Amino acid sequence: MRRILPAFVLLLAITGSGPATAKAKKPSVPEAFEIAHTVFVEARDAHDITDISLDPDDRRAILDVQDGIQDWGRYALSRSRRDADLILVVYKGRVVRDQPNSGAPGSLRPPVGHSPIQDPSDASQSGTNTSSPDGLTQEKDQLWVYTIQSDGKL
After folding, report:
1. Contact residues for 46 (Cβ-Cβ < 8 A; gap 6+)
2. Of 12, 74, 81, 141, which has the highest C-beta tally within 10 A?
């Protein structure tokens, strides 16, 4: 039994270290993320941090995303939308009372006419709101990522 234990420990160490030394497969991301260097962060409906009509919750969300980008160090923040490689559009979720003419709950969508960069196989991107029987809708925090076209449009 004493001779088998060291051999077993050695065998376990050899087989356990195999996967650790194998190269991890790099996840595939859209090319826009690979070639981008600068990012501009704004709220939904093209409100940037300098807009005085910006909702305080959305302003805080912009600041939080900007802080995260700076901490990460992968991208530099751009001072203008037109000079950025990627545009991050943020929305801070909130609880709202359902209005009869406001559309169905869960109808919150990105700005009209824009298609964010997304993975169509990611089911987590569907369904943005949850309703309760008391007529309140809990909107979720959201983040859309866009590139800007040569004509300045998202």
Report:
1. 81, 111
2. 81
Reported as a single tens digit per residue, the pLDDT across 17-62 is 555 555 677 778 888 999 999 999 999 887 888 889 898 999 999 9
Residue 129 counted as domain residue? yes
**pLDDT the model gives residue 120:** 46
> Is residue 1 a part of any domain in this protein?
no
Residues contacting 130, CB < 8 A, separation 6+: 105, 106, 137, 138, 140
- Give the integer Cα–Cα distance in Å for 106 and 72: 32
Taking the model in full, what pTM does it have? Answer: 0.60
Under the banding of pLDDT at 50, 70 and 90, the label for residue 119 is low
* Angle in degrees, CA 110, 111, 117, rounded to 5: 55
> Total domain count for the chain?
1
Range of the domain at 87: 27-146
CA distance 135 to 33: 40
